[in-house]
Amino acid sequence: MTQTDNRPLTVLNNNLGNNVIVELRYGKEYRGKLSGYDPHLNIVMEDVKEFIKGEKIREMDKALLRGDNVVYVSP
Amino acid sequence: MTQTDNRPLTVLNNNLGNNVIVELRYGKEYRGKLSGYDPHLNIVMEDVKEFIKGEKIREMDKALLRGDNVVYVSP
Amino acid sequence: MTQTDNRPLTVLNNNLGNNVIVELRYGKEYRGKLSGYDPHLNIVMEDVKEFIKGEKIREMDKALLRGDNVVYVSP
Amino acid sequence: MTQTDNRPLTVLNNNLGNNVIVELRYGKEYRGKLSGYDPHLNIVMEDVKEFIKGEKIREMDKALLRGDNVVYVSP
Amino acid sequence: MTQTDNRPLTVLNNNLGNNVIVELRYGKEYRGKLSGYDPHLNIVMEDVKEFIKGEKIREMDKALLRGDNVVYVSP
Amino acid sequence: MTQTDNRPLTVLNNNLGNNVIVELRYGKEYRGKLSGYDPHLNIVMEDVKEFIKGEKIREMDKALLRGDNVVYVSP
Amino acid sequence: MTQTDNRPLTVLNNNLGNNVIVELRYGKEYRGKLSGYDPHLNIVMEDVKEFIKGEKIREMDKALLRGDNVVYVSP
Predict the structure, then answer these.
(1) Are D37 and D60 in contact (CB under 8 A)?
(2) How many CA atoms lie within 13 A of E11 on its CB side?
(3) Cβ of D11 and F68 within 8 Å?
(4) Is the alpha carbon torsion for B8, B9, B12, B14 positive or negative?
(5) pLDDT tens sequence across C15-31
(6) How do residues G15-34 score in pLDDT, each as one tens digit?
(7) How close C3 comes to chain E (CA, Å)?
(8) pLDDT of residue E12
(9) Looking at this predicted complex, what is its ipTM?
(10) What CA–CA distance (Å, rounded) separates G37 from G17?
């Protein structure tokens, strides 16, 4: 089996414009539209809702999340 | 003895399409099909179940796990 | 979909001169005008207010924030 | 004295096929056969037993341990 | 808007000889004259006062602060 | 004054075959013969005694210690 | 103002042979003669006294301190 469409950066690229969940360390979760990324896994999202330990904390029109803190991105 | 088929990235490559367990820091565990990876050990899984300290938390169709947090991958 | 205007560094560049929120680790938040950055996500802000866990701690004319600690930048 | 056979990666190479103990951070210990490694100290083991703080947790046919968490490898 | 004078290293360079506040992780703060830096944000200060959680701990004629621990530098 | 014989890697090289103390993070200490190293400060020791917070935990014929965790090496 | 003699590595170089204080993370402090360094801020000291939270713990003829843990070096 090859991983043609499932390399990590390809998965991000294929989901531009889609809603994703980004889990960061420390129990932080961001839900919104994936609109950009770079090879460090820095992530740009739009219409973002921030949750900490399941509780909604903040809504943001746009946010740039630093890749260092990413635990997972789920399309 | 040589390690021809047991270099770390070769082990990942040989298990594309197989079920694996990925243990991350902080007691997080992900079970599902390995469908992609890169040299940073970023991992793409499909049909993923997330467990925290043994309790099932979430099911995801697909997830990209950041390699920095990996403790081990077991095929 | 392409990410022409939504690459992480492009988002910073497009917001030079605008007010942003920078969230750092440890519950620290900085609000003020984005006036500079570099590819490490080091950030220069002007007219900055520092909040820790929601409480205003300090006002600064200018501050250079180290990118390593950034959780997110929101324009 | 020279270190011809005792450079770190040489020690790993000379122990391919031998039983080793790999201690990771957070009190985790893995015992089994060393079957692969790379220069980041990522380690592949076979017939692995995982211990946490001295208690056996899990047995695995194969595991790829991320080098970042290694405290020591003892042949 | 461009960031000609507000790139992170330019801000350090423009403040050589000026008094600055350097906040490090763990609630440590250093106040004194900025007299040197490098691209890692390693910082040399003179006539430095060290504060931990607001309490003055030590005075030093000169100190080289490692950039890794910097939270912010404020001129 | 120059540091001809006191560059960090030279100090390691000059002590190959000698007994050293290696202190790692988390209060771990290793005493034994220095038999190898690399530029990442990965260290190979022989006839090693491991102490945690002053208590002897384990004796090992050989151990490869990952450099990331080193606090100091004392010849 | 220029920083000719106050670049971080220059400050270390100019203090070879002098007594310095090296503060590491976790409240560890080392006092002794600076006898070597490298660009990673790895530091070699002689006639070193180790203090933890102000209490003297150990004296060493020589010690190589890993640069990663340095908070500051004060000549």
Answers:
(1) no
(2) 25
(3) no
(4) negative
(5) 999 999 999 998 999 99
(6) 999 999 999 998 999 999 99
(7) 22
(8) 97
(9) 0.94
(10) 12
Q: How confident is the model at residue C1 (pLDDT cuts 50, 70, 90)?
A: low
Buried b (16+ CB within 10 A) or exposed e, B11-44: bbeebbeeebbbbbbeebbbbbbbbbbbeebbbb
Instruction: List CB contacts (< 8 A) between C12 and chain A.
Output: 64
Contacts of D57 (CB under 8 A, 6+ apart): D50, D51
Q: Which amino acid, E13?
A: N
Main-chain dihedrals φ then ψ at residue G27, nearest 5 degrees: 70, 25
C9 touches chain E (CB under 8 A): no
Extended beta strands in E1-75, E state: 19-24, 28-37, 43-52, 55-65, 70-74
Q: Does G75 touch chain E (CB under 8 A)?
A: yes
Q: Is-above-0.80 flag for pTM? A: yes
- The token pair that represents D63 in the structure block: 């595991």
Q: Which residues of F touch D1 (CB under 8 A)?
A: 16-17
User: What is the pLDDT averaged over residues D42-48?
Assistant: 98
Chains D and E touch (3+ CB pairs under 8 A): no
Task: State how far residue A48 is from chain B, nearest Cα, in angstroms.
Answer: 19
Q: What is the CATH number of the domain that holds D44?
A: 2.30.30.100
Q: Considering only CB atoms, which chain B residues are within 8 Å of A21?
A: 60
Q: How far is C50 from chain E (nearest CA, A)?
A: 11
Report yes or no: C70 and E74 within 8 Å, Cβ to Cβ. no
Q: Within a domain: residue B1?
A: no
Residue F1, pLDDT score: 62
d(CA D56, CA B34): 26
Backbone angles phi, psi at E53, to 5 degrees: 50, 40
Residue G3, domain member (yes or no)? no
Could you read off the pLDDT of G39-66 as tens digits, one per residue? 999 999 999 999 999 999 999 999 999 9
> Could you tell me if residue A25 is inside a domain?
yes
Q: E7–C36: do the CB atoms touch at under 8 Å?
A: yes
Both tokens of B34, joined, read 């390995």
Domain count, chain B: 1
**Residue to substitute from A2, A6, A14, A21, interface B, most B β-carbons within 10 A:** A6
Burial of residue G22 (number of CB atoms within 10 Å: 0-12, 13-18, 19+): buried
- Contact (CB<8Å) B62/A8: no
Tell me which residue range forms the domain holding B23.
8-74
Is A17 a domain residue? yes
C68 and chain A in contact, CB less than 8 A: yes
- Chains C & E: contacts with CB separation below 8 Å: 59
